[in-house]
Amino acid sequence: MTWSALMAAGAGAAYLSGGGMGGREFAFTAVSTCVAYRGLDSWVFIGVGRLLHAAWDVVHAVKGSPLIPSAEHSSLGCAICDPVIAPWCLRRGPTLRPRPRGAGRAAAERGA
After folding, report:
1. What is the pLDDT of residues 57-71, one digit of tens each?
2. How far is CA 78 from CA 13, 15, 24, 60, 105, in A?
Protein backbone atom coordinates (compact mmCIF):
# COMPACT_ATOMS: atom_id res chain seq x y z
CA MET A 1 0.00 0.00 0.00
CA THR A 2 2.86 2.39 0.78
CA TRP A 3 4.27 2.03 -2.72
CA SER A 4 0.88 2.77 -4.28
CA ALA A 5 0.44 5.86 -2.08
CA LEU A 6 3.87 7.12 -3.17
CA MET A 7 2.98 6.55 -6.82
CA ALA A 8 -0.29 8.46 -6.35
CA ALA A 9 1.61 11.35 -4.77
CA GLY A 10 4.11 11.39 -7.63
CA ALA A 11 1.33 11.32 -10.20
CA GLY A 12 -0.22 14.32 -8.49
CA ALA A 13 2.98 16.30 -8.86
CA ALA A 14 3.78 15.17 -12.42
CA TYR A 15 2.64 18.39 -14.09
CA LEU A 16 4.45 20.85 -11.81
CA SER A 17 7.44 21.30 -14.09
CA GLY A 18 5.31 22.18 -17.13
CA GLY A 19 3.18 24.79 -15.40
CA GLY A 20 0.54 24.66 -18.13
CA MET A 21 -2.23 25.55 -15.68
CA GLY A 22 -0.35 28.20 -13.69
CA GLY A 23 -1.04 28.37 -9.96
CA ARG A 24 -3.72 25.71 -10.25
CA GLU A 25 -0.90 23.18 -10.66
CA PHE A 26 0.21 23.93 -7.08
CA ALA A 27 -3.35 23.75 -5.76
CA PHE A 28 -3.90 20.38 -7.45
CA THR A 29 -0.58 19.09 -6.12
CA ALA A 30 -1.54 20.13 -2.58
CA VAL A 31 -4.88 18.33 -2.79
CA SER A 32 -3.29 15.29 -4.40
CA THR A 33 -0.58 15.13 -1.74
CA CYS A 34 -3.19 15.20 1.05
CA VAL A 35 -5.14 12.41 -0.63
CA ALA A 36 -1.96 10.35 -1.14
CA TYR A 37 -1.00 10.85 2.52
CA ARG A 38 -4.38 9.45 3.55
CA GLY A 39 -3.64 6.63 1.10
CA LEU A 40 -0.86 5.43 3.38
CA ASP A 41 -3.65 3.90 5.49
CA SER A 42 -6.45 3.44 2.97
CA TRP A 43 -6.66 1.87 -0.48
CA VAL A 44 -9.78 3.92 -1.11
CA PHE A 45 -7.81 7.17 -0.93
CA ILE A 46 -5.26 5.76 -3.37
CA GLY A 47 -8.11 5.02 -5.79
CA VAL A 48 -9.48 8.53 -5.31
CA GLY A 49 -6.00 9.94 -5.98
CA ARG A 50 -5.80 7.96 -9.22
CA LEU A 51 -9.19 9.28 -10.34
CA LEU A 52 -8.20 12.86 -9.46
CA HIS A 53 -5.04 12.47 -11.52
CA ALA A 54 -7.04 11.05 -14.44
CA ALA A 55 -9.34 14.07 -14.33
CA TRP A 56 -6.32 16.40 -14.28
CA ASP A 57 -4.90 14.48 -17.26
CA VAL A 58 -8.11 15.15 -19.20
CA VAL A 59 -7.91 18.86 -18.36
CA HIS A 60 -4.34 18.97 -19.65
CA ALA A 61 -5.21 16.97 -22.77
CA VAL A 62 -8.06 19.35 -23.62
CA LYS A 63 -5.94 22.44 -22.96
CA GLY A 64 -3.09 21.08 -25.06
CA SER A 65 -0.52 21.03 -22.26
CA PRO A 66 0.67 17.40 -22.26
CA LEU A 67 2.52 15.62 -19.46
CA ILE A 68 5.51 15.08 -21.75
CA PRO A 69 5.88 18.10 -24.04
CA SER A 70 7.43 16.07 -26.87
CA ALA A 71 4.61 13.48 -26.74
CA GLU A 72 1.42 15.26 -27.73
CA HIS A 73 -0.99 12.59 -26.43
CA SER A 74 0.86 11.65 -23.23
CA SER A 75 -1.82 13.16 -20.97
CA LEU A 76 -4.54 11.26 -22.77
CA GLY A 77 -2.62 8.00 -22.37
CA CYS A 78 -2.29 8.60 -18.66
CA ALA A 79 -5.99 9.52 -18.44
CA ILE A 80 -6.81 6.11 -19.88
CA CYS A 81 -4.51 4.12 -17.57
CA ASP A 82 -5.39 5.64 -14.18
CA PRO A 83 -9.12 4.77 -14.29
CA VAL A 84 -8.09 1.18 -15.02
CA ILE A 85 -6.00 1.04 -11.81
CA ALA A 86 -8.46 2.99 -9.62
CA PRO A 87 -11.21 0.33 -9.32
CA TRP A 88 -8.68 -2.18 -8.00
CA CYS A 89 -7.62 0.34 -5.36
CA LEU A 90 -11.22 1.20 -4.53
CA ARG A 91 -11.79 -2.52 -3.89
CA ARG A 92 -9.01 -2.23 -1.29
CA GLY A 93 -6.28 -3.83 -3.40
CA PRO A 94 -7.36 -7.47 -3.46
CA THR A 95 -4.73 -10.04 -4.30
CA LEU A 96 -4.48 -10.99 -7.94
CA ARG A 97 -3.23 -14.51 -7.18
CA PRO A 98 -5.80 -17.16 -6.36
CA ARG A 99 -5.46 -18.62 -2.89
CA PRO A 100 -4.76 -22.35 -2.65
CA ARG A 101 -7.79 -24.53 -1.89
CA GLY A 102 -8.61 -24.63 1.76
CA ALA A 103 -6.31 -21.69 2.59
CA GLY A 104 -9.21 -19.61 3.90
CA ARG A 105 -10.51 -22.50 5.99
CA ALA A 106 -7.09 -23.29 7.45
CA ALA A 107 -6.54 -19.65 8.40
CA ALA A 108 -9.98 -19.53 10.06
CA GLU A 109 -9.20 -22.67 12.05
CA ARG A 110 -5.93 -21.15 13.27
CA GLY A 111 -7.79 -18.04 14.34
CA ALA A 112 -5.94 -15.76 11.90
Report:
1. 888 888 877 777 777
2. 14, 12, 19, 11, 41
